[in-house]
Amino acid sequence: MSYTPPKLKQPQPAADLPPDLQLALDNARSLLGDRDQLFAVVAKSHADIPRLLAERVILQSRVGAVEMTGDGEACKSARAELDALEAERHRAIRARNAAFEGLLRQEAALVNLKGMLDTARAAYSARIAAEFRHRYDAAISLLQGLWREGAALALALRTAIEMPDPCRIEGGKDESVTPWPGVVTPAKLVRITGPDTPPSALDSPVVAIGETLDRLDIALRFCESIAQQKRLGQQLPSRIGSRTFDPSGVYRVAKELMNHSDGMCHQQGELVDGTLLSLTALSRHASVKAIILVETGKQAAA
C-alpha cells in the first residue's frame, strides 16, 4: 500500500489578500506540509508491518524445519535472516511511534495557527460576503422584476404564465397507509439550485483558505484520535487475555477493518498486532472474531 501526500493547489497571487492573512495561510500550509511527511511514515508502516509479520511467520517455520535437520550452517543462516527481518520490523515500529509522537506534538501549533488564520480572515471574509450579498440582492431584484412582468403579461393576455418558485417545502406530516399515525418531521424550505447549474468558480485565495481550514480541522481531529487511543490504552488492564485474545499475539484479519489509530483499513488476510492496533481495538476485534489469533506472544518471541 503506497501513500502519496495530497498536492496542495498553489493559489495565484492576489493583490487584495491582506498580508497578515497571507502570512497565516503560508504558516499553516507549511505546518501541514510537515504533517504530510509524518503521516507518510505512518502510512508506510501501516503497509510494511503486516508484510513483515507475514514474512516472519514464514521464516520461523523455515528456521524450525532447518533446526530439525541438524544442519548448523543452514540453521545459522536462517537465524541471521530472521534476525535481520526482526530488526527491520522494529525499525518500522520505532518510525511509526516517532511519527505519531511528532503528529501529536503538532497539536498546540495547529490550534495556534488555526486561531491566527480565523482572526486574519475575519475582515477579508466579511468583505467577500458583502460583495456576494450585493450580487445576490441584485439577482433577487431581477427575479422580482420578472414576477411583476409575468403578472402583467398574464393580465394583459388573459392567459396563465408559469413562474415556479426556485424552492420547495420538505418535511411535515407523512400520510400513513397503516392504522398508525404518519411520521411528522419539521417542515423546511429548500432552495432548488437546478440540475444543470454549473458549480460556481471561486477565486483561488478563497479556495486556498477553505482547503487549509479543512486540513487543519482534519489534523486536529487526528491529534485528538491519537490522544484518545493513548488514554484508552492506559485504561486497559495490563493482565488481560483469553483463549482467543493475547495482547502480544499476532492476528489474521478475517474481514476488512478500520484501524482507528491511523485512519486506514486493513484488508482480509493481513497480519496485525499491538504495534498497529491499540490493545483496546485488538481486544474488541478479537471478541467479534474480526481478527483471528494465529501466533501467541510466546510463539512470536521464540
Structural class: mainly alpha
Ends apart, CA distance between termini: 29 Å
Number of domains: 2
Instruction: State the helix count.
Output: 6
- The counted number of beta strands is 7
Poorly predicted sequence stretches spanning 5 or more consecutive residues = 1-6, 8-15
User: Helicity level, as a percent range?
Assistant: 55-70%
Strand order of the largest sheet: 6-3-7
Rg from alpha-carbon coordinates: 30 Å
The ordered H/E elements are: HHHEEHEEEEHEH
Question: What's the overall average pLDDT, rounded?
Answer: 86
Q: How is the main sheet built?
A: 3 strands, antiparallel
* Bulk shape: elongated
Strand content: 5-15%
Question: What would you say this structure looks like, in words?
Answer:
By secondary structure, this protein is mainly α. The protein folds into two domains: about 15-165 and about 205-235, no CATH class; about 235-300, no CATH class. It is about 60% helix and about 10% strand. It contains six helices and seven strands. It has helices at about 20-70, 70-105, 105-155, 205-235, 280-285, 295-300, and strands spanning about 165-175, 185-190, 250-255, 255-260, 265, 270, 290-295. The strands form three sheets. A three-stranded antiparallel β-sheet has the order 6-3-7. The chain has a two-stranded antiparallel ribbon with strand order 1-2. A hairpin with a 4-residue loop joins strand 4 and strand 5 (about 265). About 20% of the residues are buried. Mean pLDDT is about 85; it is low at about 1-5 and about 10-15.
